[in-house]
Design goal:
Beta-Lactamase, Helix Hairpins, 13 strands, 3 domains, alpha+beta, Heat Shock Protein 90, single chain, elongated
């Protein structure tokens, strides 16, 4: 599906896009009272608010314009990053539609049907979103239907989480034994090993660790989706964590003759966050870069302070790169870029999907830029939590 086209808009300025529509149509939209018709900017903040939206949820335009649309979602939906996921789906597929719930100014909830379409300007640049919301409160169907639908979704998440937790336990037990015995032999503790045998043992170790990481990612992704992923903030030395993850992956880099560089500035920045989750983010980005970088290449991890209470992670590689038409597939679980990549590079996409969920759950953002045969840069921004050096 294609995005809604709005003429006369400056790229990135949805307010100009709204103002640039036909004046009579604009007046009509503003006066519609049976439907909420809302324009959002690229970040999901309200740019235009009609009479129907005010009637539905109680906010006047001057109270809501400029604020993020997640204000209108239930607390449970915000915990699952639902507002961001809906906009991402609309942007990537051309449309998002569902039956759900929104929250009024007074805190009460209402059942709604929502349709979101991306908006572009005359040059085809994405400038924001158009959202149409229909209040279903007075419909003839029993209101219990929506509650049952919501309960069914929660039950589905619960069953999936329990299944993955049980399955992961059953898989981890033999896998940990494989890793343990392989490490024992690889380190020569079971007797001398030849160069060839050591190489094979290294392959067993690398594959086993990849499988263990995949299991962990699947379980954690299910926890994020069900709102059960717990963060345990602590004072973390970013440089130290970066070195630890780099040390884990140096063996893999060495087997492919890839130079792995770590650059952290300033030398000892600190942040208040979950160290384990940060390691997952770094590991997923770095292992992904190593996978798609050919022998003799280079992978660089950079951590810098952005200012304004955030820091930035960048992982740059000299790998195969990504075409523009495939960029929207990144950070989506169970998707690979194309059939050719799937044949040559194994994987499920869980690592990047989990990375996005972990980062966004902490108020951060992820992204990437790339060109075919020119390498890629994957980035993430996260809040510091404290002032560095405090």
């Amino acid at each position: 599906m294609t995005a809604m086209r709005v003429t006369h808009a400056e790229p990135g300025d949805v307010s100009a896009a709204v103002a640039g529509t036909d004046s009579q149509l604009h007046i009509l939209i503003q006066e519609v009272k049976d439907y909420a018709i809302v324009m959002l900017d690229r970040d999901g903040c309200v740019a235009s608010w009609n009479a129907g939206a005010e009637r539905q949820v109680g906010y006047a335009a001057q109270e809501i314009v400029g604020r993020h649309a997640s204000l209108l979602y239930t607390e449970a939906d915000r915990a699952l990053s639902k507002p961001e996921r809906e906009l991402r789906t609309a942007r990537d597929t051309g449309r998002f539609e569902e039956q759900g719930r929104r929250v009024r100014k007074d805190g009460t909830e209402l059942p709604v049907r929502v349709v979101i379409r991306p908006m572009t300007d005359a040059a085809g640049e994405h400038v924001g979103y158009a959202e149409v919301v229909h209040d279903l409160t007075g419909r003839t169907e029993p209101p219990e239907e929506l509650a049952a639908e919501s309960r069914g979704t929660r039950e589905s998440h619960r069953l999936k989480s329990e299944f993955l937790a049980n399955m992961s336990h059953e898989l981890r037990t033999p896998l940990n034994a494989i890793i343990g015995f392989a490490e024992h032999m690889f380190n020569g503790k079971a007797g001398p090993v030849s160069r060839d045998h050591r190489e094979y043992l290294g392959d067993i170790l690398a594959s086993s660790q990849d499988l263990l990481q995949l299991i962990n990612d699947a379980v954690d992704l299910a926890k994020v989706e069900s709102g059960k992923l717990v963060f345990r903030p602590e004072l973390v030395d970013l440089a130290k964590v970066a070195r630890q993850v780099g040390d884990i992956l140096r063996g893999l880099a060495a087997t492919k003759h890839i130079r792995l560089e770590i650059q952290v500035t300033p030398a000892q920045p600190h942040a208040m966050l979950d160290a384990g989750k940060l390691k997952q983010v770094l590991y997923n980005y770095l292992s992904n870069a190593l996978k798609f970088t050919p022998e003799g290449g280079r992978v660089t991890l950079r951590i810098t302070l952005d200012g304004g209470g955030t820091f930035r992670i960048e992982v740059e590689d000299t790998g195969i790169g990504i075409s523009a038409e495939n960029m929207h597939r990144l950070f989506v679980e169970f998707q690979q870029l194309d059939a050719k990549s799937a044949d040559q590079y194994s994987g499920t996409g869980l690592g990047l999907a989990l990375t996005r969920q972990i980062v966004e759950a902490q108020g951060g953002a992820v992204g990437a830029r790339s060109e075919p045969a020119q390498g890629s840069v994957f980035w993430a921004t996260l809040p510091m939590g404290i002032v560095d050096g405090a």
